[in-house]
Specification:
Elements lengths: L70 E2 L2 E2 L27 E3 L17 H4 L11 E3 L15 H13 L3 H18 L7 E5 L1 H4 L8 E6 L8 H12 L5 E7 L5 E6 L5 E6 L3 H13 L5 H14 L12 H13 L9 H4 L31 H15 L5 E4 L4 E4 L29 H21 L8 H10 L2
Parallel strand pairs: 6-9
Antiparallel strand pairs: 1-2, 3-4, 5-6, 7-8, 8-9, 10-11
Helix pairs in contact: 2-7, 2-12, 7-8, 10-11
């Protein structure tokens, strides 16, 4: 097994005294400190970090957990619309744990969904896997299990290799602490120019899906009546950052969402900072909730991202798939199995992921979602094989839109958002196409061909090394610590 407590990558500037001592934690604990969560939408805690200074507006109403969808004939009532009234009751208590009514929670039965457009009959792909014969009414322990139980899904060689890769490459507490210290100091320096600015750590660093080598995404939120021009704000910040002793290599990138890219001085830790792209905060906590819903989610996504990166289909700047798109593709597959590994959180708990919720309340939205237990007990290797086969053989790229919001493949409409697009993956809040970077047919064909080839090879060999160099990837991660 690989060590979980290796030193941070690169030469840390802490020892050089580049950062002033961090201020004491105040107000809101951004990191949801609690014991490690298994099958829980309330994400696990890491080492305690400096808190975000979020001050939600006080509410006179008492704290109430979001309403659990009504059960009818063993199935939850589907909620097609968000309630405009739920934001007002999202005031949160100071407890670091989700509200649990009893020592044991009766888990809701997952929706039965097939690998097909809604309304179609079950595909042959679903019939290729045996049904899981577990208790039809599983009991979910309120106290999370030990993280070592991940090995229960790794009894074959392929699954074991996936766990080894995950445990060697997953982001450590020290990695997150390092990013958080930089964020804390940056916020203080930015507030010299933008006094009302709030800096949020987002993306894979916060959603539980990051690697030790993952860069950090930051969102600067500037509230007020005047709409800020992102390019202007980032230009001002670029000048400011050049005067900071702990930042180097600033670069303004004028993309659809403009970013300021920079590095922590003396290391290879890179940051991308945007202005008021608050959907990134919302989807960070949605993905975080999915990431910790089942032990298999994080290893599965990490392996898929490493596979895609190795095979050169994981770079939106070069016309292939972004990491965010890949994550949504994995979640969609896991939602639409005959026995789903995941439900649709937005459909089943719309109050917790209301797109109109005040941004300060977003991190606590998932606190009151009860634990979830899937009757699907496939190993990690089985899930990876199924994922590759699904997109190699069964998914209709020309007719379907991936939607984790609906936990199904939607029929492609003739709207400008989907018309003439090679790959359609719905952003769960803004509902636009996050796979729009794939706009060249040659790149699209290369992506499809990689799914087909990797599915064929892995099905034959059942060895992760046959589709990506496991040892090389682990060594590369280790060298960047």
């Amino acid at each position: 097994m690989y060590p979980r407590s290796a030193a941070p990558r690169g030469r840390s500037p802490y020892s050089n005294g580049l950062y002033p001592p961090p201020s004491a934690p105040r107000c809101y604990d951004y990191n949801h400190q609690s014991m490690a969560a298994v099958n829980s939408f309330y994400a696990p805690g890491l080492e305690r970090l400096p808190a975000y200074e979020w001050k939600p507006t006080p509410s006179p109403s008492p704290v109430l957990p979001p309403r659990t969808p009504t059960m009818t004939n063993g199935r939850k009532r589907q909620n097609d619309e968000y309630s405009p009234h739920v934001v007002k009751r999202q005031r949160l208590d100071s407890s670091p744990h989700p509200i649990i009514g009893s020592p044991v929670i009766q888990a809701p039965r997952p929706h039965r969904l097939d690998h097909a457009v809604a309304g179609s009959s079950r595909s042959s792909f679903d019939r290729s896997y045996p049904r899981s014969h577990t208790n039809p009414h599983p009991l979910v322990p309120a106290v999370p299990e030990s993280s070592s139980s991940l090995r229960t899904y790794a009894k074959d060689k392929l699954s074991g290799q996936m766990v080894d890769l995950f445990e060697a490459c997953q982001q450590q507490s020290s990695d997150l602490a390092r990013k958080e210290m930089c964020r804390t100091q940056l916020q203080q320096d930015i507030q010299r120019v933008y006094a009302v600015g709030r800096l949020y750590l987002t993306g894979s660093s916060m959603n539980g899906l990051g690697c030790r080598s993952s860069d950090a995404d930051l969102c600067l939120v500037l509230k007020g009546n005047k709409r800020q021009d992102p390019i202007h704000v980032l230009t001002v910040l670029q000048k400011l950052f050049k005067s900071l002793s702990y930042i180097e290599r600033t670069q303004l990138i004028r993309a659809k969402v403009p970013i300021l890219r920079f590095r922590e001085k003396g290391s290879d830790l890179e940051f991308d900072l945007n202005v008021n792209n608050t959907v990134g905060i919302r989807n960070t906590f949605l993905l975080r909730s999915y990431a910790y819903a089942d032990l298999r989610i994080r290893p599965m996504i990490l392996v898929v991202k490493k596979w895609a990166r190795h095979n050169q289909i994981n770079d939106a700047s070069k016309g292939t798939l972004s990491s965010y798109t890949l994550v949504l593709m994995v979640l969609h597959y896991l939602q639409t199995l005959k026995e789903p590994v995941l439900p649709s959180l937005q459909r089943d708990y719309p109050e917790c992921f209301n797109p109109l919720m005040d941004i300060d309340m977003v991190p606590d939205g998932p606190k009151y979602i009860p634990s979830y237990f899937s009757r699907n007990q496939f190993s990690l290797g089985e899930l990876l094989l199924g994922f590759l086969k699904y997109y190699a053989t069964y998914f209709r790229w020309d007719k379907q839109v991936i939607s984790i919001r609906e936990a199904r493949a939607l029929p492609k409409s003739n709207s400008p958002e989907w018309r003439n697009k090679f790959i359609c993956v719905e952003e769960p809040f803004e509902r636009n196409n996050v796979a729009r970077a794939v706009h060249e047919k040659i790149k699209f064909e290369a992506i499809k061909a990689q799914f087909v080839e990797s599915s064929r090879i892995l099905q034959q060999r059942k060895d992760l090394n046959s589709i990506l160099p496991v040892r090389t990837i682990i060594n590369k991660e280790s060298s960047r610590r």
